[in-house]
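Much of what follows relies on a compact textual record of a protein's fold. Here is one such record, which you should read through line by line:
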Amino acid sequence: MIADAKQKFGHIDDAFAPVLVCQRSAKDFKVLHISAGLCRLFNVNRAELESFFLRPTEEIIHPDDYVRVIRAMQKGFRNPEEYQQFSYRMRIPKQEEYVWLTSCIYGYRMPDGSVLQYITSLDVTNEYAERQNRDEAFFHTSVLLEKILDTTQTALFWKDKNRRFLGANKAFLDYYGFPSEQVILGKNDEDMGWHKDEEPFHSDEVMVLTTGRSTYRVHGKCMSHGELRDIVASKSPLVENGEIVGLVGSFEDVTDEIRRQEQIEKLNEGLSKALEKAESANQAKTSFLSNVSHDMRTPLNGILGVADLALKCQDMDKIHEYLQKIMTAGSLLRDLINDTLELSRIGSGKRQMDLAVVEASHMLDRLVTSMRSAAEQNAVNFHVNLDFADLGYLRLDRLKLSKVLLNLLSNAVKFTPFDGDVWLEGSVLSAAADSCTCRFVVRDTGIGMSPHFLPKMFDPFEQENSMSEKGSMGTGLGLSIAKELLDLMDGKITVESERGKGTTFTVEIPFERVSSEEGLPEVPVEAESVSLDKRLILVCEDNELNREIVKTILEMNGMTVLTAEDGEQGVMTFIESEEYKIDAILMDIRMPVMDGLTAAAQIRQLERPDAHKVPIIALSANAFQEDVEQSRQAGMNDHLTKPVEPDLLLACLSQYIGAYDAQRKG
């Protein structure tokens, strides 16, 4: 049979593919035939090739393919009639190189138990090289794509047609804090629970998978690291062979962007309001200046015009009438200047609380004294009922409180007819150990106000009646100042009024209660008044006209006056005087050589005993609260403002000299 096989395959010529015919037994291997095609494949003759095939298998088969080839040979020996095909690398005879072969084995078993095998081989080295190149290219592309996916800052993910995750890039996993994509594989958004609401992303993905249309920057919210964040997601369908098999998506976190936008919108809104407020303030300023200009020129025109008439007049009675009109217009101009400056200071935010400890039962003594005099001059009955004796001591800003009530009372007296009535009532609304709320009521039987005027009564320069029946004129600023000061003191004000029947203002203000007299002034302004006759007063004033006016007022009231043209002369005059001889010092603030503050401080530092006690009263055009505070810090007892009000000046001198007398006796 073997001879028949040799004869049969001996006729295989060079046209046939590479073929090897061999006989295998358990202990032997024989080469029966080598085709010319096989010789061409290895470029050697049959003898050389036969000798090559008889060498040990591990010498001719590539080490990486050795096991696979041995297993194929063993299988072919056990089941010779079973067709086998496999690929491997075989060494080229006489060389160190290998060729890739794809071999097919088939055969049958001989009677003696050996196996006759036919092995055809095909050189597939080029094909394997191309496939290797393709594999390497694919591997390189895969690695590159993976690197791109993992290095891009945009979170990417892909899902199947059931919205289940198939994968995600590193940015996606980092965003949610996942160690690997195994956390999400096979799950959908609902399984992960990272969206506060399923929408809009559920509908968004269903639309992509059913219609094939892409979506762009759909806004929604998701949980990331325990915080609800804003994201925008874009998604597109994955299509294979014309069928939608899933989707690929990306998303960006826009939380900071949205917050910045909200901040910008809020800032723009604030800027818009600020611009609107600035424009409104500018209009108000223009209106304010226009009103001030008009209202100041009116009395100034009266002063200059009437003064001109008085200069040309020879009738003393008529001249006296003209002078009275000048005084009236001058008083109005003074009030207007004071109120305008006061309102400007409040509006600029420069007003602060000047708190001091005051005995509640005496906190309005000066105000009551002043208003009694004003009521008498206007022929108005002034009634006072203040019930604060049980409160003890309060910490408050008495000047501002008095200013509020003074403005209300001044209007009440001004616009109440002759023999009318004005009431000032005070009561405790509520009281605790450390706080209380007091109620002040200013009521009159005056001309009242109409309902349409009440809503704008606190606006600057708003006046329903600029002149009372008595001829008194108002500035239109008093109620505005009162309202602003009350706001500063956390107080509130209400009003009831009816034309022809009078007006009632109700003011409620909270105060702090204190348990002792600590902090009270060493010399209270409520000291007993004394006679000013023959008192010696030192007046320090650099302006000759002002010095003459003050000197004349004092001398007309029986006082003797020493004068100094600057602070240095004032200090020297006091030093040269006998101890306790000078009863009081009136000190201007702005003077050449030495200002009034320095002069007052130097007098207080003198070693003579009266230097620490003599009343020093500032008499200055500086009318702001910080000016008053500077005067106090310099050692002055009080601060009066120009133009000089004779009654107030005399009352102040009488009270402080009375206190000085008591100290001198002690």
About this structure: The chain is about 40% helix and 25% strand. The longest helix spans residues 255-312.
